[in-house]
Amino acid sequence: MKLFLNVLLFLAITNSYAQNSIQGTVVDANTKQGLVYANVYFSEVEKGTSTNENGDFSLENIPAGHYKVVVSILGYETKSVNLNIPNTTTIQISLTPSAIEMEAIIVSTPFHKLQSENVMKVEHETVKNLKANGAVNLSDGITNIAGVESVTTGLGIGKPVIRGLSSNRVLVYAQGVRLENQQFGDEHGLGLSDSGIESVEVIKGPASLLYGSDALGGVLYLNPEKFAQNNTYNADFNGNYYSNTQGFSTNAGYKTSDDHFKFLFRGSLTEHADYKTNNYRVTNTRFKEHDFKAGVGYQNHDFKTEFRYNVNNSKLGIPEGIGEQSTLKTPLLPFQNITNHLFSSKSTLFLNNSRLDINLGYIYNDRKEFEEHHEEEEEEEEEHSDEILEAALHMKLKTANYDVKYNLPKLGRFETIVGLQGMNQVNTNYGEEQLIPDATTNDVGVLATSHIHFDKADVQLGARYDNRSIDVSSGLQKDFNSFNGALGVKTNIFKQVTARVNLATGFRAPNLSELTSDGTHEGTNRYEIGNSSLKSEQNFQTDIALEFKNDHVEFFVNGFYNKINNYIYLSPNGTEIDTDPVYVYLQNDANLYGGEIGLHIHPHPLDWLHIESSFETVTGKQDNESYLPLIPANSLTNILRIEFEKPWLKKGYSFIKVTNTFSQKNVSTFETNTLGYTLLSAGLGGSFNLFKKEATFTLSGTNLTNKTYINHLSRLKPDGVFNMGTNIIIGLNYNL
């Protein structure tokens, strides 16, 4: 592999293809006047620019090939145009005025298309919008996306749930590579900061065709911030204050770019005290997080590459009930100290109407868990330091992965990609306790997928074969194989009605914990026993989506049915070991079904007014009719949003949001019912000039009525601990 990459790099650097350029103009479709500051972006080469005061633009060093250029500007419908370089050298693009928000390019699916052109239904949201709506962190923010929830342990620890599936059934991608950080644990969070993440994409449903094992339930794809446009630079500072936890988050970044080289740096610091309910503070939900990201890129006319590095250190308290009431931010015992190092490399070699994409990643996860009974001497908890404590549980997970895809030359109506993906993972124990043993895991998968353009429909299909081998230090060896496929169709039933039907299979090999665990999992207060005879989970999902859209109304209905064979779950067996209840891993076939309904109205001539409503539901059952655990309750969200412009305020907005979460009575045998509740949120913000630079101010509040409630997916629910009360967030972003 190393020799192969060196040869590719040599060919790219020594290549002498002619440098191609394109000039064009972006105009209003009605007035034919040039549009100022319209964004023009080539997604495949990750190169873009903005139009000047006449609506003109130019881009140089474009490799030969077929491309889709995306043009967008606020107040106009986003448009994509197919170009053949170098046959096309000049172009005029007309945009139609529209109150509909700008579309984003979808990166998590292989053909980089606008969602309106995508065969798969993919949800997209910017981190900026999630934060403006009152999200405290990334795991909190994704719950604003329809069909997505989070299993939480206090405020600092959250795991994504997509249509009722979580943990190793949801694959997380960051910096273009799969994130591996011991996500088998219920109290193991993402280990990522939202600082330096531009947007979030969610594939709801089996994505094993594209990503292999662990994508059985879906994919959370995190897009890092882009480099600066050519020959520009940018520096910014962001700060947020949270009233409930008396916490703060700050980050600062700088990026610069010339015609060939690009650089970026971003650092952040976050600290929170215990969150407060209407009655008390929840002891040891406090946490601290330090994060640093850096990137360097190089690009010429036929080759581009980038290398990114992220280190994240989090100290997270593990709550065990209501105790001392304070606003200190240093976690008490027990707590986690987790360091994630994420290295990623993304390169593309352009080969005349085709291209080779090579993504490489290395993740070093260092997880330490400290417990109170491991202190040999009595001392004040606020005086403890990590250096003088011995970690009860200490695991290091080292994961190297690769993803190589070749985009074949476009052949008539066919766009085709073939790929090779793989992973090598080593788990090693260093602590005095051991929950899962030392082991090595190897994955390899091959895939092929095509997008076929017909006159009245688009079809996407593909197939994939995977093998996973697990070699445990105790001598246990397991091999899992799976063949999966997907078929999707998108068509316009009527001019303004789009239908999508996707059929896909997925699989998930049992993880190391499910196969081999034998010990007390302190974070969950239970003794877990693995099952070495577990089989792979295999599912088949049918997904149907209908969407109506005109200039002033958008309406969608998504429905799914997910059949999972050999569904793996934990169940108590009625015994105890060292006073901890014993849980064992079992299997049974299961079914999940439900969907989302949404409405967005922006009536003419009140284009500044937006009325949004969405409803989501999911039901999960085993074949024996017992319900699956950790299934989100049904919920209804209504938002009234106003957008406005003033001479002194740009991109102004204000909103009121009411979320109704219904009672959850469909619970597993070791869960209890959860009462419903209603939460009120509101916020406002906008941009203005400060010392001749742009500043953006946000003010938002969540749970404004200080409602006492418990979310069904809170791991503190068995102890009757309430979720967070009223929280006011003040934020300021300043471009230096």
In which range does the helix fraction lie? under 10%
Amino-to-carboxy terminus distance: 43 Å
**Based on DSSP secondary structure assignment, what is the total number of beta strands?**
38
Task: Give start-end ranges of low-pLDDT stretches.
Answer: 7-18, 374-387
- Helix/strand-derived category reads mainly beta
CATH fold annotation of the largest domain: Maltoporin, Chain A
Helical stretch tally: 5
CATH superfamily of the largest domain: TonB-dependent receptor, beta-barrel domain
Overall pLDDT level: 89
Based on CA atoms alone, the radius of gyration comes out at 25 Å
**Number of structurally distinct domains:** 2
User: What portion of the residues fall into strands of 2 or more residues?
Assistant: over 45%
Q: Just give the CATH class of the largest domain.
A: Mainly Beta
| Name given to the CATH architecture of the largest domain | Beta Barrel
Notable characteristics:
736 residues, Immunoglobulin-like, Maltoporin, Chain A, 2 domains, 5 helices, 56% strand
Q: How would you characterize the overall build of this protein?
A:
The protein has 736 residues and is mainly beta. It folds into 2 domains: 2-98, Sandwich (Immunoglobulin-like), CATH 2.60.40.1120; 122-735, Beta Barrel (Maltoporin, Chain A), CATH 2.40.170.20. The strands form 5 sheets. It has a 22-stranded antiparallel beta barrel. A hairpin with a 4-residue loop joins strand 2 (39-42) and strand 3 (47-50). It starts with a helix and ends with a strand.
Secondary structure layout plus pairing:
Layout: H1 2-14, E1 20-28, E2 39-42, E3 47-50, E4 56-62, E5 65-72, E6 79-85, E7 90-95, E8 122-126, H2 127-132, H3 138-141, E9 148-153, E10 157-162, E11 170-174, E12 177-178, E13 197-204, H4 208-211, E14 218-224, E15 232-242, E16 247-257, E17 261-272, E18 287-299, E19 303-317, E20 335-350, E21 355-370, E22 393-407, E23 414-429, E24 439-453, E25 457-472, E26 477-494, E27 497-508, H5 512-516, E28 518-521, E29 526-529, E30 537-549, E31 553-577, E32 580-601, E33 609-622, E34 635-646, E35 649-661, E36 677-690, E37 693-702, E38 727-735
Parallel strand pairs: 1-7, 11-14, 29-32
Antiparallel strand pairs: 1-4, 2-3, 2-5, 5-6, 8-13, 9-10, 11-12, 13-14, 15-16, 15-38, 16-17, 17-18, 18-19, 19-20, 20-21, 21-22, 22-23, 23-24, 24-25, 25-26, 26-27, 27-30, 28-29, 30-31, 31-32, 32-33, 33-34, 34-35, 35-36, 36-37, 37-38
